[in-house]
Amino acid sequence: MDQSIWIDKLKEKGLKATQQRLAILEVLVEENFPLSAQNIFSKLRRNNPNLRLSTVYRTLNSFVEKKIVRKLDLIDKESFFELLSGEHHHHLICMKCGEIIPIDCPLKDYEEELIDNTDYTIIDHRLKIYGICPRCR
Amino acid sequence: MDQSIWIDKLKEKGLKATQQRLAILEVLVEENFPLSAQNIFSKLRRNNPNLRLSTVYRTLNSFVEKKIVRKLDLIDKESFFELLSGEHHHHLICMKCGEIIPIDCPLKDYEEELIDNTDYTIIDHRLKIYGICPRCR
DNA sequence: CCCTTATTGCAAATGATTTGCATCACTGGA
DNA sequence: TCCAGTGATGCAAATCATTTGCAATAAGGG
Ligand SMILES: [Mn+2]
Ligand SMILES: [Mn+2]
Ligand SMILES: [Zn+2]
Ligand SMILES: [Zn+2]
Fold it and tell me: Which pTM value belongs to this model?
């Protein structure tokens, strides 16, 4: 991973480019997949014995706020986080094995309609589809 | 509320028609709106001083399992529960005042497409749209 | 009305996430 | 390159919604 790009991006957003933040970004980039705070923490603790889970949470929260990362509630309790890069999309989740597949967003036109019907300003939306994958079926 | 209908419905699903369950159903029916466990608990505790929040949770969970009620994660942390009655729908949420508006489900065709593309068995889905209502804007 | 069993009251535990505070490490400027 | 100021982190403790264990209670079929 080219750190300098991320260092710039962090500074741009008013965040200091700390070791911890860069390490967390690195995991998010190379996995390129929704991960929990605990997931990220486990991966990094090996080489960073005194990294704390609270730091991971604080980092992810600031990334969400700065729109570097998106927070997802795919299954009950644990939240997942994924890098905001590439196409806007949603997720199809296998309820047996937990596989997560990205899916296209079908809501463009629907949102236009909604604006007309409700006079709301639309800011964001969340869509998750739950099913059983072919292997688990 | 006509209790006998609900008593029958509960028995049909293999649940005993207890005072607590009927009271919780009554709140859900008359509010006809997503409510948190705490919401329901507060409303009922006035007349039921020894109803417990844990009972409300246990009841709601069994209702979800028996498909009498649907659990929604509209905002962070607290879950909401709404009676499964009327049209299948989703929600538009005002991020300022918390207003919740039911909206039609636009996903029928999209799900067909998904089945073809992914070979998943689709079981359920969740859609929430966040915005600002005209009054808050 | 009684017996069996599900359900509740109650209190304690859980588990993800947050927070307070002292210390540390970035970063922009000297 | 060094320094001061401020934001970030380590660490431990707190929060808060939700769950759970267990003994006591109340449905409801017979
Ligand atoms: Mn994704
Ligand atoms: Mn609704
Ligand atoms: Zn699967
Ligand atoms: Zn509003």
Answer: 0.91
